[in-house]
C-alpha cells in the first residue's frame, strides 16, 4: 500500500523524493506527488543556480548530510545511544543509522499520528524497522501526556545519551514557539547522561540580497506559509539556546565540513546553519 497522499505534507512529499533520488532513502519512500513537486521545482532551481544563487535541493542535501555527520560523530564518541527524530516525515535517516550502528543505538522516528502511520507502512514495505528502530506518534507542541515527547522518551534506556533531531521543522514556527520547544527539549534531555540537540536554522545575516529573497519566496510557496527567520545572527541564537538551558552550542556553517560532506560546498549551504547544542 502506498502512503495516503492526503495525510502527507507537500514538504514531506518533496523531501522524500530528494532523499530517494540521492540514495538517502529506500525507494518505498517515494510518492507520485513528491515526484511531481520535484519536477515542478526543477526549472526554478535551475534558474537560481544559473544566477549564482541557492537551490532548494542543494540546501536540503547539505543540511541533511551535515546533521548525519554530527550525529555519527557523537555516536562514535560513545556519547549517544538513543536518537529521537522529530517530524521525521519520509526521511531515510532512521533506516540508515539503524543499519550503520545496529543495536548500539535505539532510533525513534516521530511525527503526527497520520504521518507516523504512513512511515510505519513505508518502512514495512522496505523490510525495515524493528526493536531498535521504531516509529512513535508525537506532537512537538505538547508539553506532557499522550503524544508528548516526554511520554515517547519513556521507552528509551536512561543510561544512554540521547540526541534529538529537528530537521526542516523550526521554519514553520514563530520565534516564541521555537524557544518554547527548546526549553521543552532541554527538560527531556536533562534526564539522560548526555543530551544533544541537532537542527537546521536560517539566520537573517546569512540570508540577504535579491537572490536570497527569491529563494525565500520559493520556500514560502513550497511550505504554503511564511518562512521564519527567527534570529538576526549567531550570537542572538546562541543566547536563546543558553536561556533555554543548553550548556553549550555551535551554529555550524555547512561548508566547514566540505572535506567530509561534499554536498556542503554548495552555494545553497551558506544560507543555513546547523545547530549543535549540548544540554
Question: How would you describe this protein?
Answer:
- This protein is an alpha/beta fold.
- The relative contact order is 0.15.
- The longest helix has 21 residues, at 56-76.
- It has a 7-stranded mixed sheet with strand order 3-2-1-4-5-7-6, sandwiched between helices.
- The protein is 42% helix and 14% strand.
- It is built from 9 helices and 7 strands.
- It has helices at residues 10-21, 32-50, 56-76, 93-101, 113-125, 149-152, 175-189, 210-223, 234-243; strands at residues 82-86, 106-111, 133-137, 162-166, 195-201, 248-252, 273-278.
- Helix 4 links the parallel strand 1 (82-86) and strand 2 (106-111).
Indicate the topology:
Blueprint: H1 10-21, H2 32-50, H3 56-76, E1 82-86, H4 93-101, E2 106-111, H5 113-125, E3 133-137, H6 149-152, E4 162-166, H7 175-189, E5 195-201, H8 210-223, H9 234-243, E6 248-252, E7 273-278
Parallel strand pairs: 1-2, 1-4, 2-3, 4-5
Antiparallel strand pairs: 5-7, 6-7
Helix pairs in contact: 1-2
